[in-house]
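Internal tracking record. Fields below are filled automatically when a chain is submitted to the structure queue. Please do not edit lines marked as system-generated. If the sequence contains nonstandard residues, flag them in the REMARKS field before resubmitting.
Queue: standard
Priority: normal
Entity type: single polypeptide chain
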Amino acid sequence: MSRLYWVFFLMCLAGFAGVVLSISQVFGLRPGDGATFFAGLLAGAIVWWQGHLIRQQMQLQAIIELDKEWNSKEMLANRNAAWTDKNEPEKDSIEDALEFLEKVSTFEKHGVISADLIWETFGWYLWRYFYYSSSVIEDLRKEWTPAARDLTLYEDLEGLYRKLLIREVKRRNRKNGNRRPLLTQQDVISELDTTKEKFIRSERRLTS
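SYSTEM-GENERATED OUTPUT FOLLOWS
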């Protein structure tokens, strides 16, 4: 978000520079040219900023609606049923949750919601569901297309999982500053393995 503010600020600054250049007649500009340039640039900046705010509002609304669905009574029951008593994915029940997360991933792919916003909201669930059920996803790919494994099934989910994994490493390393050694993707994956049963138990208690 801060980078966008800087872009807006620099656009306004460029417009002001145009006025200064006009007044001093640098590069042969007449006095009125700079004012015209500044007015046009400022108008364009305002339109761009309004468009940005509208897009932010649309993202917020989309996240709110997705959150309602993810935490609805029906979805909580689906998430509870997605795992076995042995804390493993239940192939016949986990598809509802995976389909939802695939939808979230598709929204990100097409620019409806940013990856950063998903990382801060659904990312916690998204990469865990994909990582813990990766073998089930492979089975489903074979089951639905036995002649040739369908790699497009949950393709967006897989892509966003990898993108969020990279973001997790970068964010945490940035937060830790110059701490050594730096966190790696393998470190995060090891954490997922270590906390697997804890996470699945929490999902299975959702309707308790």
